[in-house]
Predict the 3D structure of the following.
Amino acid sequence: MEWVEIIGILAGFFTTIGAVPQIVKAYHSKSVGDVSVWMFFAILAGVILWTIYGLIQKDWPIIITNGISMLLNGTMIYFYYKFTEKSFTRKKR
């Protein structure tokens, strides 16, 4: 494996795990008050396009890392709406 491939794989790995700390925090706290859902939508759009690009180029590291990123960012968007809905329900009572 050449050094350029190693750099690409590491870049994909660190970009992919970037959302994990926020997901873990939201899951444990059941709170997303300070989260910008639009940032996660923007990242999701980007990783969807990267995945399509990877499929066209048949570049497995791009497909895998961005496919995982789609799942992680989608999870954060799901948590945003799930936990925001709960906080609205609690406020109404």
